[in-house]
C-alpha cells in the first residue's frame, strides 16, 4: 500500500504567491502626497509626511486671501484617492479703502481678494506714487498721495518786480502781483494765478516807459499832419474852400465893426469942437472984445463943414 506524502514544494509556491499578492496590494493602496486645491492647501504638518497609506487622513486649510467659513478640512486616502475635504473657504474682503485728503477712488469690481481699484485726485492735485490699489491677503496694496500742484517761480520783468519773495514755488491758486518802477506803466494783467495744470493763468505783463504830455502832443500833431497829407484831393479842395469862406466872413465882420467906430470918432471930434468954441466965446466976453457975427463966422463955417 502506497503512502502519499504532502507536496511541500507546491505549498511553498502557494505561500510565496500569497505573500507577493499581499505586498503588491499594500503598495497599490497607498496615496500620493496631497496637493493644494483652488482655495485650500494642505497644512504644514501634512506636507512634512512622506507616506500616505490607504486609510490615512490629512488636513487642509484655506489658502491666502480666503477665510474659513465651515468644515474641518479633513481628507482620507481611499484606494489611492483622496476624498474631498469638508472645508468651505470664501474670499476675504479688504473693505472700503481709506481716502486721504483730496483723494477719490474708482471701484469697478468690488473690494474682495484680488480686486483692483483706481486712485484719482481732486482738481489742483496730482498723484504721488501708484495710481491703483490691489486687495491682497494682508489688505490693500499700493501707496498713493495727492499732492498739490505747483508752478515754476514767476519770472522777473525789466523795469518792474513781482510780489513772490519766498524760496518755494507757487502752489495751486496762489496769486503773484506785478508792479513797475517809476516812469513805467504796466502793459498786460497786473496779477497772474497758478492754475490746476501747473501753468499760470497768463503771461507776465510788461513795463513800458510812460509818455510825457509834450511827447504825446508831438505824436498827436504828427498823426494829424499825416492824416492831412494822406487825405484825398477832394477832401483837400473842400478844406481850402472852407478856409476861403472863413476868411471872407472875417473880413466882412471887420468892416461891419470899423464903420460904427469911425462914426463914433467923428462924433467925439464934433463935440470937442463945440466945447472948445464955447470956451473961446466965454474968454472973449471977459475981455470985452467979442463980435457977434464977424468973429464967429469962421468957426461956424468950420463947424458946418464938419
Describe it for me?
The strands form 6 sheets. Strands 1-2-4-5 form a 4-stranded antiparallel beta sheet. It has a 4-stranded antiparallel beta sheet with strand order 7-8-10-11, with no helix packed on it. Strands 13-14-16 form a 3-stranded antiparallel beta sheet, with no helix packed on it. It is 35% helix and 25% strand. It is rod-shaped. The protein has 4 domains: 22-90, Complement Module, domain 1 (Ribbon), CATH 2.10.70.10; 103-148, Complement Module, domain 1, CATH 2.10.70; 160-210, Complement Module, domain 1 (Ribbon); 233-305. The chain is of the alpha+beta class and 306 residues long. It is built from 5 helices and 17 strands. The chain has helices at residues 8-29, 44-47, 213-229, 233-287, 297-305; strands at 40-42, 57-62, 66-71, 74-78, 81-82, 87-91, 103-106, 116-121, 125-129, 132-136, 139-141, 144-148, 160-162, 175-180, 184-187, 191-193, 206-209. A hairpin with a 2-residue loop joins strand 10 (132-136) and strand 11.
Give me the secondary-structure topology:
Blueprint: H1 8-29, E1 40-42, H2 44-47, E2 57-62, E3 66-71, E4 74-78, E5 81-82, E6 87-91, E7 103-106, E8 116-121, E9 125-129, E10 132-136, E11 139-141, E12 144-148, E13 160-162, E14 175-180, E15 184-187, E16 191-193, E17 206-209, H3 213-229, H4 233-287, H5 297-305
In short, what is this structure?
The protein is α+β, with helices and mostly antiparallel strands and 306 residues long. Helix content is 35%, strand content 25%.
Amino acid at each position: 500500500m502506497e503512502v502519499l506524502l504532502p507536496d511541500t514544494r507546491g505549498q511553498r509556491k502557494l505561500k510565496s504567491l500569497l505573500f507577493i499578492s499581499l505586498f503588491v496590494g499594500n503598495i497599490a493602496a497607498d496615496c500620493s502626497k496631497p496637493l493644494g486645491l483652488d482655495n485650500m492647501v494642505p497644512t504644514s504638518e501634512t506636507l512634512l509626511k512622506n507616506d500616505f497609506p490607504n486609510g490615512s487622513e490629512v488636513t487642509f486649510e484655506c489658502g491666502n486671501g480666503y477665510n474659513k467659513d465651515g468644515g474641518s478640512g479633513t481628507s482620507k486616502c481611499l484606494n489611492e484617492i483622496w476624498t474631498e475635504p469638508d472645508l468651505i473657504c470664501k474670499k476675504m474682503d479688504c473693505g472700503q479703502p481709506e481716502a486721504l485728503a483730496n483723494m477719490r477712488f474708482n471701484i469697478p469690481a468690488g473690494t474682495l481678494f484680488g480686486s483692483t481699484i483706481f486712485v484719482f485726485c481732486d482738481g489742483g492735485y496730482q498723484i504721488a506714487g501708484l495710481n491703483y490699489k490691489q486687495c491682497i491677503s494682508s489688505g490693500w496694496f499700493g501707496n498713493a498721495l495727492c499732492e498739490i500742484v505747483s508752478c515754476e517761480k514767476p519770472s522777473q520783468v525789466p523795469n518792474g518786480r513781482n510780489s513772490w519773495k519766498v524760496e518755494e514755488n507757487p502752489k495751486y491758486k496762489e496769486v503773484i502781483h506785478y508792479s513797475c518802477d517809476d516812469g513805467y506803466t504796466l502793459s498786460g494783467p497786473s496779477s497772474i494765478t497758478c492754475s490746476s495744470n501747473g501753468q499760470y493763468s497768463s503771461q507776465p505783463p510788461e513795463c513800458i516807459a510812460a509818455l510825457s504830455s509834450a511827447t504825446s502832443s508831438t505824436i498827436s500833431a504828427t498823426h494829424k499832419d499825416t492824416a492831412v497829407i494822406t487825405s484825398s484831393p477832394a477832401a483837400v479842395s473842400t478844406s481850402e474852400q472852407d478856409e476861403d469862406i472863413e476868411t471872407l466872413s472875417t473880413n466882412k465882420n471887420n468892416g461891419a465893426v470899423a464903420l460904427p467906430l469911425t462914426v463914433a470918432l467923428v462924433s467925439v471930434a464934433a463935440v470937442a469942437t463945440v466945447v472948445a468954441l464955447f470956451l473961446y466965446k466965454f474968454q472973449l466976453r471977459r475981455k470985452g472984445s467979442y463980435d457977434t457975427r464977424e468973429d464967429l463966422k469962421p468957426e461956424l463955417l468950420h463947424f458946418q463943414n464938419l
